[in-house]
Every structure is written in C-alpha cells, then in structure tokens.
Amino acid sequence: MNPGRLIAALQRDAGRIGGFIRKQIADPDEAEDLFQDVLLRALDAPIEEVENLAAWLFAAARNRIIDWRRRSARRPTDSLDAVGVPEPASPAVAAARAELQQRFWDELLDALAELPAEQREVFVQHELEGKSFKDIAAATGDNINTLLSRKRYAALYLRVRLKELYAEFSNVEDS
C-alpha cells in the first residue's frame, strides 16, 4: 500500500467524511467513534487497487453507519423522544422508514460518486456539510460563480438520476 496516497486522501477528505457521519448520527460521541473506526479500517484495508479513495472512504463510512443503525435497532430504548425523535406508530412503520432512509443514502452516495469530482466536492460541502459558498471559495480558490455553476450541474444530474427513487418515495407517502 502507498501510505502517502492514503494520508493525502485522509487529509483532503477527513472533514467531509466526519461531517457526513455527524449529519446521520445525532450522538457526537457515537459519530466520533464511527469516524475513528472508518480511519482505522482504511489503514488496514487493501486499497492499492482503489482508484477513488474519497468514494471508498465515504462507502466505508456509509457501511459503518448501517452497521451502527442495525446494532442500535436491536438495543432496547426507553423512548426515542429522549434523543428528539418521535416514537413511530409501530415497529413496521419504523422499519419501513429506516429502510427508505438507508436506500436514499445508498442511492445518493452512488449518484454522487458518478459526478465529476469538482461538482461532487461543491455539492457535498454545501448541501451535506453546510458550508457556505464563501467558505468553499476561500478554501478552494475558486470564485463563487464557478462554485454555484458546479453545484447547479450536480443538482441537475442528481435530480434526473434520483427521479425514479423520488417518485417511488412519493408513492409510499401517498399510500
């Protein structure tokens, strides 16, 4: 393995991966544990053949989140209200909701991996990490209009790519 390549990828993408995990895991301690686990797995993984380390790292993070959710679903809780989540009407509704949410994230991550890197970077930083265009421009050296254009093209692609999924989810909500 080329440790320099992995270190460069981690330096470049660790903040985004951490932000991605924190967006999906409300407990900051759990999110940090998952983030550390992703980093440790990256160090032990045979990633010599991996072309896009950022996509690999995001997929590893997504997989760790899935594992965490499965473990959490098996743990009894006193009430979901304690963490700010209303209790579902039934276990079946909760399971369906969790399945739809996981499917959405899987599809979104797959679609993001298909985008050109510059478009993906802007979209992820602005939409998933909540960074302002001003902050992104300062970090990348690109002007704001260029970033707006990249995000627009990313959003247009994602809208088309995820159109069927959106329609499917809309039909589920209507029933």
From the structure above, extract its key features:
single chain, 175 residues, mainly alpha, 8 helices, globular
Q: What is this structure's SSE topology?
A:
Blueprint: H1 3-24, H2 28-44, H3 53-74, H4 91-114, H5 117-128, H6 133-140, H7 144-161, H8 163-174
Structure in a nutshell:
With 175 residues, the protein is mainly α. Helix content is 77%, strand content 0%. The protein has helices spanning 3-24, 28-44, 53-74, 91-114, 117-128, 133-140, 144-161, 163-174.
Structural account:
The protein has 175 residues and is mainly alpha-helical. Helix content is 77%, strand content 0%. The protein has helices spanning 3-24, 28-44, 53-74, 91-114, 117-128, 133-140, 144-161, 163-174. Helix 3 (53-74) runs antiparallel to helix 4 (91-114). It is globular, with a radius of gyration of 18 Å. The N and C termini lie far apart (51 Å).
